[in-house]
Amino acid sequence: MKITVIGAGAWGTAVALLAAQKGLEVALWARRPEQAEALQAMRENREYLPGVALPANLRPTSSADEALEGTALAVVAVPSRALAQTLAPMPKAPAYLSLTKGLAYTAHGLTRMSQVIAEATGVERVAALSGPNLAEEIARFQPAASVVAAAEPGLAQQVQKLLGGPSFRVYTSRDLAGVELGGALKNVIALAAGMVDGLRLGDNAKAALMTRALREIVRFGVAQGAHSETFYGLSGLGDLIATCTSLHSRNRGAGEKIARGATLEELEASKQVVEGVYTVKALHAWGQESGVELPITEAVYRVVYRGERPLEVLSDLMGREAKPE
Ligand SMILES: NC(=O)C1=CN([C@@H]2O[C@H](COP(=O)(O)OP(=O)(O)OC[C@H]3O[C@@H](n4cnc5c(N)ncnc54)[C@H](O)[C@@H]3O)[C@@H](O)[C@H]2O)C=CC1
Ligand SMILES: O=C(CO)COP(=O)(O)O
C-alpha cells in the first residue's frame, strides 16, 4: 500500500519514517524541487531533521502528480497558513490525515485544519492526529503515543493500523474538534511557558500557567462542541506538558526569545514554523467577535502583537478579580 506525506518539514519527515518502518511505500512531497533533490541525494533531511537516515521505501518528490498517484491516504504536514493554497491545485486523495496544529479565522469564523482540508480538496474523509509528539524524538523511534480522530471510526482505525508500531502507540477518538483544538491551543500556551522560562519566573509559575491554561482550553473547547475528557488526554494535557517543557519545542523556544526582546517580524522570519503566533491571532479575532474571555490567550496576544512587556501583562493576570478555583 502507498501513502503520501505532503510537507517535508520535521514532522512530515518523522511521520513518513514511521510509515516507512511499517513497510509501506511512502511518497514524501516537498514544495521546492531543490529540497526534494537534496532529500533524494543525501537520504537525509538536513534542513529540518538532521541526523536521521531515510530508508529506500521513502521516496521524496516535488511532483504532486507523482506523489499522489495511487495513494491510499494523504498525510498533510504543511504549516497552517499554507494549507489551503498547497492542497487546492493538487490531485485528490481518497482520504486525508491532518498533522497540522493550527486554527484559522475565516469568513466562516474559527476554522480547524480538517475543515480547511475538506474545503480545499472537496474530500470529506479527513482525520487528524495529535499528541505529545516532538518530531526529533519520533524520528529516532523513541517511545511516544498519539490520538487519531475522525468523524468516521473506520478512517481513524485505518490510520491507527497504518502508523501504529512498537515505538508509536496510536489511540482512536471520535472527537475530531477536541483533538484538533487541544493541539492548536497548546501552542499559544507554550509561547507563554517560554516567556516564563526566559524571564526565569520559576517552576511554580509554569505549573500554575499550565494548569490555569488547561482550564481555559477546556472552557473554550467545550463551547466549540468538543468533549471535555479529550482535553485531559494525550492531545490535550499530554501535548501541553510536552510542548511547555521541551527544549525541542519551537513555540516554547519562541516565547523565550520574546522574553529576551525578539520581535514578531523576527519570529515570522524563522525557517521553522511557530504556529502559536498565528493561532493566537485567530483566537483574538474570534474573541473580539464572540465576546468570550480567554485571559491567558489574550495576554499572549498583547505581548506578541501589541509589543506589551510580558511582566506587565503578567501583573494584570495576577491582579484579576479573586475567585474560587
Ligand atoms: N515539529 C514537530 O515536532 C511537530 C509539528 N507539528 C505540526 O506540523 C506542522 C508542520 O510543522 P513542521 O513539520 O514541524 O515544520 P518545520 O518548521 O519543520 O518546517 C516547515 C515546513 O513548511 C514548509 N513551508 C514553509 N512555508 C511554506 C509555504 N508557504 N507553503 C508550503 N510549505 C511551506 C517548509 O518547506 C517545511 O517543509 C505544523 O502545523 C506543526 O505545528 C505537529 C506535531 C509535531
Ligand atoms: O506539536 C508539537 C509537539 O507535540 C511540536 O511543538 P512545536 O511546534 O512547538 O515544536
Report on this structure.
The protein is globular. With 325 residues, it is α/β, with parallel strands linked by helices. The protein has helices at 10-21, 33-42, 64-68, 83-87, 113-121, 135-138, 153-163, 176-198, 203-223, 228-231, 234-245, 250-259, 264-268, 276-290, 295-306, 310-318; strands at residues 2-6, 25-29, 44-45, 49-53, 58-61, 73-76, 96-98, 103-106, 109-112, 126-130, 144-149, 168-173. A hairpin with a 3-residue loop joins strand 3 and strand 4 (49-53). It binds 1,4-dihydronicotinamide adenine dinucleotide and 1,3-dihydroxyacetonephosphate. 1,3-dihydroxyacetonephosphate binds next to helix 8, helix 11 and helix 12. 1,3-dihydroxyacetonephosphate is lined by residues 101, 132-134, 187, 190, 239, 242-243, 249-252, 275.
